């Protein structure tokens, strides 16, 4: 079979590759600690599950209208009104199959063969692959651990070249956990408007931030910026609804019209009864969010504390999401491991701990540790990571002595 150029250009997600190795070892009965998954370990709250059952019993099992059910669009609009004091029209929003479909449809709607896209790096895996699929060229904006992986206007200006079509930003960030400075973000949006560039702001972790940070959306800049600004949201992480596949995009009505066209011919949108459950996620009790964020913070602090005990790792304090992204470059430079993939392979094969190699995110000297798992697993996982590194160093010392 001859496959299209479009599909031949892309690679499978490396984060999913780690997941499949973790699954394989689990099936073989090994005591695996999975610190690779980008998925909350908390159950979807009961009231949301109950709302889903009720919507099934009410017969919400037929096609939903293209673009999403009215109740859900209204619930998103009311939430943004309440949280950020800004009001959107119903034709400025579309409900999508998770954040992933929302973002990929936007890229599809905007990027032509040869178009340039500014991509802060490290980046979430799928941006790059979808840009490639559309034939776009990425211009990386390299961020590093010394700058706490924060994007500045200066970074954008330095990497901007005439004719760039799109900038993708993601704060709180996957894989770094970094939360960008609000004023800096606003300046970046204004710069992009000046240059007539589109900006996708992927805000799928916006409620998962640690004090003194508070939830923030660029939507708060107001409707007039929607000419260039695209807000991509998701219920997966904040409401523990990864498997429900519900997301949304807020932007100008012309873009939303294009996204609806894509949705109507490809997927017909998310499952109808899940959309009704999603209304409950927005309108029902929100108090569990606070305890969830508290639990994540406790775990983050624990992980940082444990990583500090390991020599020569460079790390920083992530302010959001549920990832830590240490720099293991010191060990790679000295040949302990060939690269971060070699490190991740060694860790899963010898110690049955799954982490995601930074290369999946365009950062070859890093690994991503997800703390969306129990404290007990984190303790064990971090103990084994330390063991791997200490044992490797001892082996090298022995070899040098011989
Ligand atoms: C930064 C980022 N954006 C978007 C998504 C997509 O999430 P979903 O499609 O589950 O809404 C993810 C999921 O891992 C993510 O980490």
Written overview of the protein:
The chain is α/β, with parallel strands linked by helices. It has two domains: 5-43 and 287-393, Aspartate Aminotransferase, domain 1; 60-283, Type I PLP-dependent aspartate aminotransferase-like (Major domain) (Aspartate Aminotransferase, domain 2), CATH 3.40.640.10. It is 45% helix and 12% strand. It has helices at residues 5-8, 14-27, 46-57, 70-84, 98-110, 125-133, 153-159, 182-194, 253-266, 272-283, 287-308, 329-333, 340-351, 375-401; strands spanning 33-34, 93-96, 116-121, 137-142, 166-170, 198-202, 229-234, 247-250, 323-324, 353-354, 356-357, 367-370. The strands form three sheets. Strands 2-8-7-6-5-3-4 form a seven-stranded mixed beta sheet, sandwiched between helices. Helix 8 links the parallel strand 5 and strand 6. The longest helix is centred in the C-terminal third of the chain and has 27 residues, at 375-401. The termini are far apart. The relative contact order is 0.17. The site of pyridoxal-5'-phosphate (PLP) has 13 residues, from helix 5.
